[in-house]
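Quick one before lunch.
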Amino acid sequence: MLLTAIFLSLVAGSTRLEAETAQLTDVRVATQMAGFSGTGYVTDLTKDASQLTWSAKLPKGIYDLVVGYSAPNGEKGFDAVVDGFGLSGMLPRTAASANASFARVTVGRVEVNKPTTQFVVKKGWGYYDLDYIELLPSAKSPRLVRPPATLSDSNATPAARRLFRRLVAAYGNGMFSGQYDAKENNHVQAKTGKMPAVFGNDFMDYSPSRVARGGIPRGETERTIARAKAGQMVTYSWHWNAPKDLIDAEITENGRTVDARWYKGFYTNATTFDVQKALADPSGEDYKLLIRDIDVIAAELKKLAKADVPVLWRPLHEAEGGWFWVGAKGPAPCKQLWLLMRDRLISHHKLHNLIWVWNSVRPEWYPGDDSVDIIGADLYPADRRDATASTWDDLFSRFNGKKLLALTEYGQAPEVDRMLRFGVRWSYFVSWTGPLGASAMKDEDLRRVYTSRKVFNVK
Ligand code: CA
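Model of the calcium ion complex:
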């Protein structure tokens, strides 16, 4: 294996940094498991202080970061810091066989622009073994092909078509900025003099099972319409409180107390409502409750339609994570619910102001090209300056020339110029709120992002 490493170095200009040669903190070197490269691998990556550090001299440039590792117990989160810039990625589960214990995977891209570069691998999720990291000069980014500027709803309104054409025309040249929540939007404007191109909101509080307990939300849709009239694009998600069967109590999960009261009713662990069962019986009460809830949201979407406001509509978001009840029974019922919602909103309610944003990225969750306009990824890397290259590369290889890709939720605001240098070209980003919103950023960082020539705001 050592010979292989040297061969690779000569041929491809790659540099392999063996884990066992790093400066080690709170980990240990092992050799029991066969198949490692070099003279061993690092194990016991389990403590918060566990880390490996290397210094290496590499030519300036962008590199793919490849990780040699073993994770037979399940996929693990990987965290590294390269010259101070954080990079998060995923290590897929490896085979549990004694002969094929190690695997390699590209976790993202890093930039080298100093004579000596410091590489640090942190614990991440821990509980995996690290054999090596390897730096491969990054291939030039493949050509971005803009998707057709046609919407999945063939009767889409002229305003929805215009908005989509605008997104497609700018795709690859830079990114539209976006921010959830009115206060956060105002913060961006106060600190940067710019208004985010996209205003994000959520129909959560309109869910009937919340209204029944928490009172009626007043004026939120109207305030969003005012935002659109002032020039912002509008995106909506819907934290859909389960129609019924809320647990509405504190529960104990794995020895921890978890708040599963009614206002957490969009979470899987806060309801016993079964989406699969509900969909299986169109004459049953549960199915009718799904329709009832969709109809309530339709009434709000109609206000937006009446005001001629197109909506980047992102329901059933993050379903593949399983933490929301709409995704708790796997991809099949979730895709069925997506198509049911589409049919109800488009055919029954005649809502043609919607641009349909699908927000699960795994292939088995995809409901199909003809029901989706934009693919969204929700990313919360440990360092907001992360270039998010691994998720981008995965989606780009599947959807280039077919669908727009967007960062539909992001922890704070990304460093767009850096992303573009790395070949990462999301259509837009929408920052989340609170500690994950613009207001948690340093003013100078926020200003740098929002005044970039590559970031498109409300003009
Ligand atoms: Ca090794």
